[in-house]
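Handover notes (outgoing to incoming on-call)

Open items:
1. DUF7137 domain-containing protein: sequence verified, structure written out, both below. Nothing else pending on this one.
2. Nothing else urgent.
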Amino acid sequence: MVEKRQNNSGSQSQLQTQSALQSGQTVTQSLASQTGSQSLTAAPMPTIPSNAPPGLISVTQPPQQSTPFYKIAPSEPITFAWAFSNIIVTPTHLTVSAACKNGNTYPVGPTDGIIPGTATSVVWDTYAYQTSHPQLPLAQAEYTLEIWGDQGPDAQIKPGFLTPNSAAHFSLYTPQGYTPVTSGWSCPGCSSAISQYDSRPALVGLISTLFLVFLSGSLVMRRL
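DUF7137 domain-containing protein structure tokens:
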């Protein structure tokens, strides 16, 4: 009798466990189905007309009439700004980078070059970047500002989608520290020029003579 009760108790326990598992699976499948249906209807793809132009970015800051120069120094951040046009499919994020002529590419901005897809500007503290990245310092050279969306830097031109932009250029330089003359500052160009005159005394004498002749002639003409 004891063994039968134990067997019956074990069978009931197994049935309860199976029922709970089946119930849990049913609830999980139901939640997954609901979640899936919600995710599919949350962000539908916008309708893109077949004749829609490609989405574009126009850089507004800095002006591109000429290549601007920015110095890498404290409290000298650079602001890059742009405007969108013909964007139908808004990117989730933008990537902004500075491609240098030395072959290196640097992230622009405080968030490693990744900003929201609707952003229209970014501020880059080049001095802060320089001090925190000694292994890859910014070079004194010309750079190309590159901006692209979810499709990547080599995205094909598509109606309504953002087209990558790499039309803006700028240059960076590091200002030299001031050195007073009393601390040993010298002018190499000036010294070389003086040494050239010292090495050609005949030329210096000829120039002096011609100047005196010209001055004497001017005085004579005035008296007449």
